[in-house]
Specification:
about 270 residues; mainly alpha; Fic-like fold; about 65% helix
Length: about 270
């Protein structure tokens, strides 16, 4: 077992922290909006860094804020693509927040729109389209399904995920971990089906976040520092058991909430 597992006390701390910050956010919507913005930007940077180690996080910060040299293609095409994908991802995450408020169900068209928004400029021919070739996932024994089966598999699984997610209703201490499990399920589903030519990891992580946003959660930011543990947890999952990824997400989410706890304390004192 190479993935991280919280103790029972830490799991209680996760639930306590979530409901405390949820309440503080409801009492101070402006502070909640600021926290969501910070997490969105942090998530965009780290989600891209997990996939592309050739562009360091310090340069991803430059790209996200559109600072530095105006024309990134003068440096390299790869750097230019990183710039457009990073800003495309931040735009896509904003759209997820809107869709969560609207209560939209997850669907094939929803998934394709996510991919198109991120890769519109860097993958003009393949953005928003399922792959048409067979692939292998580097470093994993799992073999993704034939490309002709992608739409059928995803449609069936999305139906089940939507039914269980919307059945939850108001989040309570009793069903809190059910939300995280459904998030892990859609995350692993997309990562394992590998529906796109490129960008599957970023889309899978964002889809997992959509489940959480839909139920009023803050983002979960998987930090680059935990990349190997995260990827190990994915590799240890199966189509019928996503417990390894769920346990990692519990750990990651506690770390994420701790990151914004001080900010909410600051906002509370100022208020």
């Amino acid at each position: 077992m190479s993935y991280t597992v919280l103790t029972s006390r830490e799991r209680e701390d996760l639930v306590d922290t979530f409901f405390r910050l949820k309440g503080m956010g409801e009492r101070n919507p402006t502070a909640r909006m600021e926290a969501m913005t910070a997490l969105r930007c942090l998530k965009a940077v780290h989600s891209n860094a997990i996939e592309d180690k050739s562009v360091d996080r310090i340069f991803l910060q430059v790209l996200l804020h559109n600072a530095g040299v105006p024309d990134k293609s003068l440096i390299s095409q790869h750097y230019f693509n990183a710039s457009t994908e990073l800003r495309g991802q931040e735009k896509m995450l904003r759209r997820l927040e809107d869709k969560a408020v609207e209560g939209e169900e997850f669907s094939i068209s929803f998934l394709l729109e996510m991919h198109r928004t991120v890769f519109r400029e860097s993958m003009q021919e393949a953005s928003g389209k399922f792959r048409q070739d067979e692939v292998r996932i580097k470093g994993m024994a799992h073999r993704p399904p034939h490309h002709s089966k992608i739409a059928e598999i995803l449609h069936q699984q999305f139906q089940s995920i939507n039914e269980r997610l919307f059945r939850i209703g108001l989040v309570t201490r009793t069903n809190f971990f059910d939300v995280l499990r459904i998030s892990a399920e859609i995350h692993y589903l997309i990562a394992s089906v590998h529906p796109f030519e490129d960008g599957n990891g970023r889309i899978a992580r964002a889809a997992g976040d959509y489940v959480m946003l839909n139920r009023g959660f803050y983002y979960d930011v998987i930090m680059t520092d935990y990349r190997d543990i995260y990827l190990d947890s994915l590799e240890e999952c199966t189509a019928i058991d996503v417990t390894p990824l769920l346990r990692f997400i519990e750990y990651s989410y506690l770390e994420t909430l701790k990151r914004i706890s001080g900010f909410f304390q600051l906002a509370s004192v100022a208020g």
